[in-house]
Amino acid sequence: MTDALLEPLWQGLKATSAIEWVAVVTGFAYALLIMLRRRIGWVFGAVSSLILALLAARARLPMQALLQLSYVGAAVYGWWSWSRSSAQPVIRWWHWRGHAIGISACLLVSLLLAQLLKDESAFPFIDSLAACVGLLATWLLARVYLENWLYWIAIDAVSIYLFFTQGLVSTAVLYVLYFSIAVIGFFGWRRDWQKAQAGL
After folding, report:
1. Is 11 inside any structural domain?
2. The domain containing residue 145 runs over which residues?
3. CA 73 to CA 82: how far, in whole Å?
4. Residue 6 maps to a domain
5. Residue 181: strand pairing partners
6. Are the CB atoms for 33 and 41 separated by under 8 Å?
7. Is residue 144 one of the residues assigned to a domain?
8. Do 118 and 124 meet the contact criterion of CB atoms below 8 Å apart?
9. pLDDT digit string, tens, across residues 105-151
10. Which ranges of the chain would DSSP assign to H, the alpha helix?
11. Which residue has the higher pLDDT, 63 or 38?
């Protein structure tokens, strides 16, 4: 049973192109640096997203491709937002109404996009929802809201499935790493936020 599961993974990793490996390495560097609240991470994120946009388009995941392109713009915004102060960005909480509105808007937009993409996308609704929520999570990250990590945990779990089923095994592995970093990032940022609230 284990061999049956590991063999496709191993074959997929061996078939990974050099450009996909570049996306994986720069993407991992991005996630790690952002978790540590280092501004340079946005540069690595932009490079990884450009490559992943091309790979997603080839794999018939059009919304993932558009999402990755939007991440490039988000990286520019994140770099600018985190540059406004010489100190490390301050972690904040977002109000519950913002989450309710954001999630509702993502569901509505995803339902509409799924209808438009039913002949273009391998997974119209899931692809669209992951893309919409990804935009929301990126904005929360750039604004240094703690809850961004919770969104990323959900998005990364879905993305692992999307990329793996479309044959982008190394990219799926990258999202496993993203998932792990999102979990660590949430607890790390929450600890720092609690210390700040306590005046430590």
Report:
1. no
2. 18-81+99-117+124-197
3. 14
4. no
5. none
6. yes
7. yes
8. yes
9. 999 999 998 888 777 777 788 888 888 898 899 889 888 899 999 99
10. 2-14, 18-35, 41-58, 62-83, 96-116, 124-142, 148-165, 169-197
11. 38
